[in-house]
Design a protein that fits this description.
Number of strands: 10
Largest sheet: 4 strands, mixed
Structural class: alpha+beta
Strand order of the largest sheet: 1-4-3-2
Order of helices and strands: EHEEEEHEEEEE
Radius of gyration: 15 Å
Strand content: 35-45%
Shape: globular
């Protein structure tokens, strides 16, 4: 059954060199497979992030994927120290403080990769959900 198997997140980006530099050098992920058409990065457990080449960057602002983390503030601090721009929001229904928002069930933060993909970090308040 599929419930017993890992799943890979698939994103797109027009510039795979920028994606490799961003996720590899700045975010700190190891490259598993690389070709002219895609880059696959190792994430926690058996999960992987795959970015394939496309002609246009993403213009959707919805979150495409989220890492589940134990301490979102510490992850935000580390990402910023590595040169990653963590998004700040101050709008009705969504306000970040030092890059972190309380979204009710979790604390969350977001970054946008070179392909225009919004990626989240979630620290669940109920640890059994993490």
């Amino acid at each position: 059954m599929l419930a017993e198997h890992p799943i890979d997140v698939m994103l797109t980006a027009p510039d795979l060199r920028a994606v490799r530099q961003f996720y590899g050098d700045q975010v700190g992920l190891d490259v598993l497979i690389e070709s002219d058409d895609f880059v696959t990065f190792r994430c926690g457990g058996a999960s992987r992030l795959v970015v394939t080449r496309t002609s246009e960057p993403s213009t959707e602002q919805t979150t495409k994927a989220s890492w589940r983390v134990a301490d979102v503030a510490a992850e935000v601090a580390e990402l910023r120290a590595r040169g990653v721009d963590v998004a700040d929001y101050d709008e009705p229904g969504l306000r970040t403080v030092d890059g972190v928002a309380d979204v009710g069930f979790a604390l969350s933060a977001w970054l946008v990769d070179p392909g225009g993909n919004t990626i989240g970090l979630l620290q669940f308040k109920d640890e059994t959900l993490a």
